[in-house]
């Protein structure tokens, strides 16, 4: 492992930033269609959907920005990974979807699982880089 804070792979910051853009854009789009997204969240049975939506926007925009710029990326990746767990289970339950929507929900479920894996990779790389800076 390198002795500076740069990960061993120079393409890593590009991948981290692209993962961050996904959340950043998603958060911004939620602001632009706040009432529609809140209604959709409420229809999924989420109590206090508007409050939950504000929190989701803060997590997505804040975490996305941190990943894009690379500051506190380890914490951002951990928060976003934890955020993805209930989001995926609540909104992409392919197991309870009707036949017409099951495949679409499975695709979204698997996409979120893959993004979760990306967050774990960012967390691991950032943890390793932090350990090498302390050494």
Automatic annotation (TrEMBL):
Pfam families tied to this protein: DoxX (PF07681)
Subcellular location: Cell membrane
Major localization class: membrane
Membrane-crossing residue ranges in chain numbering: 21-42, 48-68, 75-97, 109-131
Membrane topology: Multi-pass membrane protein
Protein keywords: Cell membrane, Membrane, Transmembrane, Transmembrane helix
Family annotation (InterPro entries): DoxX (IPR032808), DoxX-like_oxidoreductase (IPR051907)
Position of the signal peptide: none
Family per record: Belongs to the DoxX family.
PANTHER family attached to this UniProt entry: INNER MEMBRANE PROTEIN YPHA-RELATED, OXIDOREDUCTASE CATD-RELATED
Annotated protein name in UniProt: Inner membrane protein YphA
Organism: Cupriavidus laharis
């Amino acid at each position: 492992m390198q002795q500076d804070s740069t990960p061993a792979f120079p393409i890593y910051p590009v991948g981290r930033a692209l993962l961050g853009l996904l959340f950043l854009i998603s958060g911004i789009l939620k602001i632009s269609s706040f009432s529609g997204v809140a209604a959709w969240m409420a229809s999924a049975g989420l109590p206090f959907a508007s409050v939950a939506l504000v929190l989701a926007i803060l997590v997505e925009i804040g975490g996305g920005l941190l990943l894009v710029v690379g500051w506190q990326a380890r914490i951002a990746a951990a928060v976003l990974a934890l955020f993805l767990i209930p989001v995926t289970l609540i909104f992409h339950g392919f197991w309870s979807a009707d036949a017409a929507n099951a495949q679409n929900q499975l695709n979204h479920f698997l996409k979120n699982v893959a993004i979760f894996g990306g967050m774990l990779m960012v967390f691991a790389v950032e943890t390793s880089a932090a350990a090498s800076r302390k050494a």
